[in-house]
Amino acid sequence: MRSVIVVLALACGLAHAHKPSDSYLSIQGEAGLVRGQWDIALRDLEHGIGLDADGDGSITWGELKRKQAEIQSYAFARLALRAGAHACPIQPGELLFDEHSDGGYAVLTFSAPCAASEVRYALFFDLDPTHRGLLKAASGTAVLSPERPSAELGKDARPAWRQFLDYGFEGAWHIWIGFDHILFLVSLLLPSVLAATGFRPALWEVVKVVTAFTVAHSITLALAALSVVELPSRLVESVIAASVVLAALNNVWPVVRRGRWLIAFVFGLVHGFGFASVLADLGLPREHLLVALLGFNLGVEAGQLAIVALFLPIAYAIRDTWAYRRAVVVGGSAAIALLAAVWMVERAFGLQLGLV
Fold first, then answer.
1. In what order do the strands lie in the sheet with 140-144?
2. DSSP 3-state assignment of 20?
3. Which is it for strands 22-30 and 33-41: parallel, antiparallel or unpaired?
């Protein structure tokens, strides 16, 4: 039975194949002893060391257990705890299994007999520079990346301004690597310059779309992050993919020619739940909850504005060309619709079609 659970969880994870690579590291210190738990995605471990022994596309509990020593060796070689200038020897514990919203995770428990003051993290950085380690400790939360691979432990929680900046950066980063959100926005923006009589009307059309999308996802992001409203992850991710399909197909066979801002608002409500799942993974600090939420949301908006700033001048400059009207708007939208349709089927039915 346990093998079946692991297989199903991995299939669910494959349906979210575009999701950024994250692991979840929790560390608690008490009287000279550190205890920790480290959740690492099976799909990432499969990529890093290989878990699927028989190559059938599924990972059973037996396959996971047989790789326990190799998993622990691989992971803990890329994690270091330090007490001042001295290294803290990490003692691996039990290997467990857990299921997150995006699939199955190996859970590594560990301890270290020291009062650690710093954690240094390097898991998967050599394979995937977008990977993030999401740290929870007594000092608060931190996002570990190739640019910031270490964090201090055991100190007071970081000040509000630092939390604001950290979560703002993560908001901007996740809109840039959230390809479904980007493709939805781009699909709505592609025709915005076609009917405009000048740059200012084109800009106004873009502003309406982006503002509607921003207002909508800000509402549901806040509601979900504060646990006021919760929706199943698979439903949210499937509808997000469907929204990309519909927005792109509308450029190929126009049904809604005006009022694209309304489409942006309606589906933006669903995209907000998608952003909220990212924020839930990062973890909101209790002491600065609203500050972190505001920072993340403003970071998302900054990321969107960067996309618009890049898109609009180029699109407006070439809007009268055949290449833009046919190859970019029609051909590009058809390609986006196909890719999003694959995502939609994968997410809705837990499949891996092998096209992305």
1. 91-100, 103-112, 33-41, 22-30, 132-137, 140-144
2. coil
3. antiparallel
Q: In what order do the strands lie in the sheet with 150-152?
A: 86-88, 79-83, 118-121, 150-152
Domain spans of the chain, in order of start:
2-156, 162-349
Cα angle vertex 265, ends 262, 270, to 5°?
135
Q: Which of 155, 160, 123 is nearest to 138 (CA)?
A: 155
* Inter-residue contact 166 to 298 (CB < 8 Å): no
With a threshold of 0.85, does the pTM exceed it? no
The answer to whether 102 and 236 are in contact (CB under 8 A) is no
Q: Select from 266, 270, 271 the least CA-distant residue to 256.
A: 266
Condensed to tens digits (0 to 9), the pLDDT of residues 197-216 reads 888 888 998 989 999 999 99
Helix (H) or strand (E) holding 100: strand 91-100
Cα 355 to Cα 339: distance, rounded to the nearest angstrom: 8
Query: How much is the pLDDT for 339?
Result: 94
Model confidence over 50-89: pLDDT tens digits? 998 888 878 889 999 999 999 999 999 999 999 988 999 9
Query: 152 has which bridge partners?
Result: 118
- Specify the residue for token string 């929706």: 231
Both structure tokens of 243 = 């929204």
DSSP H helices in 77-198: 160-177, 179-189
A 10 A CB-CB count for 47 gives: 14
CA 83 remoteness from chain centre: 32
Helix 289-317 × helix 160-177 angle, to 10°: 40
Helix (H, G, I), strand (E, B) or coil at 31: coil
Q: Helix, strand, or coil here: 51?
A: coil
Identify which of 22, 330, 25 has the alpha carbon closest to the alpha carbon of residue 173: 22
CA-CA distance, 68 to 335, in Å (whole number)?
41
